[in-house]
């Protein structure tokens, strides 16, 4: 890893709470940030059932935080964003929907007074980039959907919130298989550890949006990527939303949508292999800001960004043309 700390060092990340209204209810949302106050805002959304700690390595990337004000938040009911104190939230199941998700993100950006921000999210946070481009294209400078697809069925499962199932452990090990086997074990284990911290029912509730409410198969022409550029970046080892899913989604959207495959990485790129991900995302951010002279390639490889892998993964079978 690039970070190197000594006893007594204090990391340059600061944490705060901001009050955000969602569906008429006040929520106390926790967020962490690093970077210049006048830097380009980069709003980072965690995956289903997780929290903003997934982005901790991006938050301490000196090159990125020199130009960007990186902000990573916990959605309500996640991490340090506790349920609203004005509601009897325990009387009903937590369920995330596309409307609630987008309203949370846009109202959070408004509450923080972010001017022309870049949005970046992964998994369910990647999928929601399509709704943001459809419903709120004027609010963002660009959208980056990591592990993004038009449709992700099959994961809203009853036993993900069942008294006879250790859902904390099950959720973590389900995510283990989505990471590239050559990603560093320490960071893969940390990703699992983060998944073991979620409240009961939250992961399942997020997956309602991911697998039920989100379906753009017949609506890709509604995505306004010509007004707000959309970058879809899927990992080679992600079998939920494959690089091919990303390419098909971008092709269905058309002008303004760009698909990139991130080689040698899986479904949780920012936390499973932070060094490689940070190098990849610098290239995408350079394309957003216009600092990159050439178009992004169809596939970004570790060699393209100066990262030497000590262990290469097994070859992935490619879909026949």
Structure, explained:
The chain is an alpha/beta fold and 321 residues long. It has a single domain, classed as Rossmann fold. It is built from ten helices and nine strands. It has helices at 56-59, 62-67, 98-111, 124-135, 167-176, 185-195, 202-213, 243-253, 269-272, 274-289; strands at 14-22, 25-34, 40-45, 68-73, 118-122, 142-146, 230-235, 257-262, 299-300. It has a nine-stranded mixed β-sheet with strand order 1-2-4-3-5-6-7-8-9, sandwiched between helices. Strand 1 (14-22) and strand 2 (25-34) form a beta hairpin. Helix 5 runs antiparallel to helix 6. The longest helix is centred in the last third of the chain and has 16 residues, at 274-289. The model has no long low-confidence stretch (mean pLDDT 95).
What is the string of SSEs from the N terminus onward?
Answer: EEEHHEHEHEHHHEHEHHE
Ends apart, CA distance between termini: 37 Å
- Strands side by side in the biggest sheet: 1-2-4-3-5-6-7-8-9
Q: What count of helical segments does DSSP give? A: 10
SSE inventory with pairings:
Elements: E1 14-22, E2 25-34, E3 40-45, H1 56-59, H2 62-67, E4 68-73, H3 98-111, E5 118-122, H4 124-135, E6 142-146, H5 167-176, H6 185-195, H7 202-213, E7 230-235, H8 243-253, E8 257-262, H9 269-272, H10 274-289, E9 299-300
Parallel strand pairs: 3-4, 3-5, 5-6, 6-7, 7-8, 8-9
Antiparallel strand pairs: 1-2, 2-4
Helix pairs in contact: 5-6
